[in-house]
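Why run this: before we spend reagent on co-expression, it is cheaper to look at a predicted model of the complex and decide which construct boundaries make sense. The entries below are exactly what would go into the expression plan.
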Amino acid sequence: MPHPHQPLLSASRAARWFGIAVLACIPISSSGQQAPPTDLVIKNATVMTASHGTIEHGSVWVHAGKIAGVGATVDAPATAVAVDGTDMWLTPGIIDPHSHSALDSDVNEATSPVTPSMHMIDAFDNRDADLYRALAGGVTTELLLHGSANMIGGQAVVIKNKFGLDRDAMLFPNAPGSIKFASGENPKRVYGSRDQLPSTRMGNFEVMRLAFEDAKHYMAEWDAYDAKAKKGDKDAVAPKRDLKLEALADVLRGKLYVQIHCYRADEFLTEEAIAKEYGYKIRAFHHALEMYKVADKIAADQTAIATFADWWGYKDEAWDAIPWNAVMSMRKGVRVALKSDSDDHIRRLNQEAGKMIHYGGATEDEAIRMVTLNPAWIIGVDERTGSIDVGKDADLVLWNHDPLSTYARAQKVYIDGDLFFDASLPGLGTTHFNGVMHNGGGFGSDDEEDGQ
Amino acid sequence: MRSILIAATLLIAAPSLIVAAPAKTAAPAVIAITGGRLLTVSHGTIENGTLVIADGKIAAVGEAGKVKVPAGAQIVDARGLTIYPGLIDPETNFGLTEVSADQESNDLAERSDEIMPHMHVYDAFHSETELIPVARLNGITNAVVAPATDDSIAGQDIFIQLAGVDRDAMIMGRDVALAMNFGAEQRRRGGRGGKPEYPSTRMGLITQLRQTFLDVQDYVAKRDAAAKKDDKAFKRDLKLEALIPYLKGERPVVVGVYESYDVETIMALAAEFHLKVILNHVTHSQEVLDKIATYKVPVIVGSIYDAPRADERFDAVYTLPAELAKRGVKIAISSADAGGPASSHSSRNLPYAAGFAVAYGLPYDEALKSITLNVAEMFGFGDKLGSLDVGKMANVVIANGDPLDVRTDVKQVYIQGVAVPMVSRQTRLRDEYSK
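The model came back. Tokens follow.
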């Protein structure tokens, strides 16, 4: 279902952002910025491709925003703008499959446990400072997800972190839709504390089944109407369109990637069973801290995980978290991504990947994939970004040090071949941003209890 | 190299070195760690060094060939490995929290009043916490345990060893420092829908602190007068008494403060009462770093991951350790996570915070000092801990590389010369599900 996008800036929203300054016509688009070069070549870097190993002294040619060549040598034209990558590392842009940045804490519509027609895009604040800080950490793509107060929270938005451009220019074009589900402690706490359903895990899962029964009934009503209308029945009355049920119907029709906040081993199994019962696939379990206990079973369902490197102990369902979870699950065949769920950790996901060498002995290739190609798959954009391959979007990060070490700083961050961050610039290091940043507040975590 | 590593690992894992309860062992064996790279912290790096441990202390340290390996010593072949003093985390809540969201497992701060110097962390410290073995596996051997930061004066810290048969064996120092805080967080603005209470402003917070310190001075005068008269009726006031050593400047006061103007305000009060200050955080004080240097007080930076203010450069806080060290300030770095509630679950990431400071300009040697010797000195354990020097406690870590790098694997931790079992609840889960 296409979502009717809001106007770019409503007057009231603009006024809140800029106060009186909005009258002074602060430019919020990239107008006045130089167009990126048609051809760009980054030379003599250690190129970590994420898909086909590392190329020492490698080069990458970018043409019209796409990767046109990668290897020991490339056929870039002489007119290409050259960037010296000597003693530097080049990786695909870092991809965070689980962020709550830039939402001014509008993360949970925690007024009902099933709110599938809530769209993250309607809360996305493209001027939030957390986007900038993530960009400076090499993050080029983010999946902005709902929180976990609701069993079915709403529909996510995928952004390219083109900080400084207007809202719509930051959306990942034609990215697949995702919907956020949750489970476990958060929904039962939020509604249980109000003496409402759900207050137990039994209630949690039954809320989902009830919702899908409603959706099936709704779909059947529409099917009956469509059949009548097709036969030319003039008396056929169309059912009322219901945004909530249409969104759930889209889940059942397989039109949305299902992203589920889920911690415990037993709950992965229940979620998979419900998905099978109602006929949808689960794209990824998020957090997934106990995946190492049942990884072989979940691998068979081809559900990926987006997990933390080493967070644990912050609540009961994070008590059995171990830092070997990612690598152990990967060895059992689960596709593993690391994610931030944090406005802090999003700035150094490359280090979180480096930890996987320590915790379980991931190879460098495996580690870098956990923050590039694998999260791209979870979002459904792995054909377009997430690795350094010809034809893909030129989302690239040049680092001054091995990005899997503690010491790496992103020097230049390119998105679609355009430079968005350059650490050598004075001030903020941004190339497209001017104006005022917003502090969205909060920590960008699922476990914030906003909306309670 | 790989075979050497494996050999070293096997040797380290030999059953004779596995001791279930370290501190129970009265006389640990003499151990010689040979062939490794020694990061002494106090006197540079020794590429091919020998470290001898006897009676729980460092008995010798130096270049191979210049140090005599005692006959009968257990030899730990550390070729290809790096040896350094145990890391010390200057601010944790170890033993005061288990599961952050589970209130029953938390004893973090007594919020009933703003002035709570008579809260002693040793009364709540749960030495069997699962958090300690988890941190220990990454080379943390000592820590300061402080109450949470809700109160202007939250209580008194302990200094611990991350191994021991019981609480008493693990607490190396009681009431080692006063935990004081100043800023927006301590204002009593009331909860959701709650009414504000005094002190609801910074004016209130400072006035209350000043009155408290004056009350202590008055109390001391009255107590001394009563003692002279042998007045048995004099009633002790535990709260005021708790502050006496700090007003005498005998022990440090750790002052948690973030904003530059708050630093200036609280340091003026500290000067008025001659407090021996250790500044903590100073996260948003970039404008007054020169002034901070003139205070001649040590500074704990934590969290290096705290967010800068909007419109500040992304690395405004990352560069703080380097900027302070450049100005001659003695710094420590703590493991605190940014933003969220204090979480000692992440204490194991302490070395990475120091490494991140290196990425943003702090000299490497200063970074290592900021999580070892500097912390020991700030809290009065400089003669016992923090460097590989003869006579110090043998809190020693062996790792397969640079201690500050996220990729590095700690192979063995010694606390008081005893090889600590390299297990935690998490390794047990790992092993159970790896079968």
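Residues 1-27 of chain B have pLDDT under 50 and may be disordered. Chain B touches chain A through 44 residues (CB under 8 Å). Bring this page to Monday's planning discussion.
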